[in-house]
Amino acid sequence: MHPVSLIALLTASASASASPRQSAPVNQNVIPKTFGVIAGEGKDKIQIGSCLGANNALIPCYCPPAPDSPEFLTKLAKALVDGFIFSKAQVAVPITLAKFNDESDRSAETNKLRATAMIEVMQNFNMTTQGVGCPGVSVPILGMMQQTGIVARGFGGLGNGGR
Predict the structure, then answer these.
(1) What predicted TM-score, i.e. pTM, was given to this entire model?
(2) Mapped to the 3 state alphabet, what secondary structure does 27-57 carry?
(3) pLDDT-flagged residues of the chain (< 50)
(4) Which of 59, 70, 124, 161 could form an SS bridge with 155, CB 3.0 to 4.6 Å?
């Protein structure tokens, strides 16, 4: 093998093994273990591609991603680091990555800010077109957290609960 190829291969390998840690520096301990809706549950027979969300509202069947989804965590981290999703005038994120990650701060106010940031990322999930993503009814646990500052530990009657 050519020495340059070997160096390129080793560099690519090192980058690949380091990227999961670098792509999701979000503290998952401050994120609810469920969003209250399970993606793909309750497929609608009339509106193909739609599934059941909270309050029997129809949502895209890919919504929501799991709370530990690498794609969700990467997009959330990017938004928290950048401070906005598109531009500051459009979708500003109300909390910094450092404050979001501070596990010692479980105050209602900080939890509300965390929930708002996660909902904004969900609602703009493709990160290229504002408002293209998962609607709020796909993450009722986050909606409740945004209103009350309380992190729910289960479905609590919200969402599709695996129906």
Answers:
(1) 0.78
(2) CHHHCCCCCCCCCCCCCCCCCCCEEECHHHC
(3) 1-24, 162-163
(4) 161
